[in-house]
Amino acid sequence: MRHINGAYTTYFNVKRSRSGHLFQGRYKAILVDSDAYAKELSLYIHLNPVRAKMVEKPEEYKWSSYPDYISDRKIHEWLNRDFILGYFGNKVSVAEREYKNFVSGLEGKESESPLKEVFASRALRTRVFTEDVKKNFVKIKEADKEIPATKAFTEEASMEEIFEAVDKMFSEGRLSRDVKQYLWHRYTSVHLKKIGEQFKISESAVSHAVSRVSKTIAKDKKVREKIDKLVNKLNHSRFKT
């Protein structure tokens, strides 16, 4: 990646008689909890050309590996499909078919990028995954807790802290319940399923609640300011930035 960002940019600029950056932003590597997010990331990537209205079907985009995953063409030798297809079946033909159904089932539907769940700009993970990484790979010193790369592995606000803070800021009702779900989901590593169990609703219902709050924040300045205050009260240093 360093070679592409540096040497290739220099080559391209000289060849095209131009100057400046060639790629948008710096290269960023994100640690991913594969069991929780791998399928969703693969889906999002393969539907990007459709979402950008470059093609109508993901298999129509010439630079995509999607046709390799569903055997619409001769598979590139360098492409390792086993990791993703392994989530859809042990038999290759079955996995290819199920993966195609998985992707086509969401064509034309709005979906949030799983990268919105990235915590502290460095990790896309669940609590179990976080604890495993902390135990085996990360040693955090007190002085390092404000470094973005380590924020993903520091203490999070608890459910009780979030609920208590929301109850003080919002009166009881649907908005209060939605905000609790929104904060719990957005600012901790707790998964949708656990949040749903707490509220006795489905994962999709939690997702809708989070979406409703996101839309309200975009339109309602007062709600946005209240939630900003909540985040600050819950110690923003423990949350993603």
What does this structure look like?
The chain folds into three domains: 1-28, no CATH class; 33-114, no CATH class; 155-238, DnaA protein, C-terminal DNA-binding domain (Chromosomal Replication Initiator Protein Dnaa, Chain: A, Orthogonal Bundle). Helix content is 54%, strand content 2%. The chain has twelve helices and two strands, in the order αβααααβααααααα. The chain has helices at residues 2-16, 34-51, 66-69, 82-85, 92-104, 127-136, 148-151, 159-169, 174-186, 192-199, 203-219, 221-233; strands at residues 31-32, 123-124.
Gist of the model:
By secondary structure, the chain is an all-alpha fold.
List keywords for this structure.
single chain; about 240 residues; mainly alpha; Chromosomal Replication Initiator Protein Dnaa, Chain: A; 12 helices; disordered C terminus
β-strand amount: under 5%
**What is the ordering of alpha helices and beta strands?**
HEHHHHEHHHHHHH
CATH class of the largest domain: Mainly Alpha
CATH 2nd-level architecture of the largest domain: Orthogonal Bundle
Query: Which fold name is given in CATH as the topology of the largest domain?
Result: Chromosomal Replication Initiator Protein Dnaa, Chain: A
CATH superfamily of the largest domain: DnaA protein, C-terminal DNA-binding domain
- Could you give the order of strands across the largest sheet? 1-2
- Number of DSSP helical runs: 12
Structural class: mainly alpha
Helix content: 40-55%
Residue stretches low in confidence (pLDDT < 50, at least 5 long) are: 119-124, 142-148, 236-241
Total DSSP E strands: 2
Main pleated sheet = 2 strands, parallel
Estimate nothing, just give the exact number of structural domains: 3
